[in-house]
Amino acid sequence: xxxxxxxxxxxxxxxxDKPCELIKPKYGKIKHxxxxxxxxxxxxKSSVTGLLAVALEKLGHxxxxxxxxxxxxxxxxxxxxxxxxxxxxxxxxxxxxxxAPMISRRGIKLQSMNFLIxxxxxxxxxxxxxxxxxxxxxxxxHWGDLDYLLIDMPPGTxxxxxxxMTQFPVDxxxxxxxxxxxxxxxxxxxxxxxxxQGIPIKGVIQNMAYFKCDECSKKHYIFSQNSSEEVAKDxxxxxxxxxxxxxxxxxxxxxxxxxxxxxxxxxYDVLMDVFRDDEKEIYARNKASKKKTIPMAGL
Length: 299
Description:
The protein has eleven helices and eleven strands. By secondary structure, it is α/β, with parallel strands linked by helices. Strand 5 (102-103) and strand 6 (109-111) form a beta hairpin. The protein is globular, with a radius of gyration of 19 Å. Residues 9-13 and 291-299 have low confidence and may be disordered.
């Protein structure tokens, strides 16, 4: 426990008379844990998680992605790794059970339920079992040294989301939405849920916000006449950026090449701009905080 405390970002304000109940990875050191969440399916949250992982890697960070959508995992598809299968790393100690993450083409470490079962095999588990399985994927994966672990959250406000918000050492959440009234209403539910837990929200990414015409290069906002700024203001969140509705991205995703397409397409460099000074923001926020809610994970 002493080593964990020494690496905790909240050490100066720690409530030392109370035990730390947040779970930590057993095999590795993770500086920052970030949840990517929407509250609603179909907004491209998993794609945004993958895009953000690539952006952070391009900024020079070591990055991992934990696919927390146990019943509908999508992360392996983004990275073209859906046919790969994970397993346990051999150890001389029978008490040590380390799971091996998959490694993407750009060196991003990945863990997902779909690495442990056949891709089309359904996971028919109730809430507590889902949460326990996710805890195991987080704790027992050999992450190594990571600057960022992104958690691709499941849609909704169910057991898994509650477990992550109350048991995981999350620095902050990034909210993914699309500029539509129906989507905004549902996403606001998850925003309110996060706020009840006192966890910071960095802001909202408006995905599929516009379509850029090949002929005139004009941005066409096809889903709503309300601007992304107005939608973010209604959520009382900062607008981090807008991402396009890109048919070429969909084509590369289907061909298992989304990771490289994201790395080479300048349309996604906006994510690098948004997260370039992220660690400074985390440090400033933790220094100002008086609550023990956002510790660094690591052993």
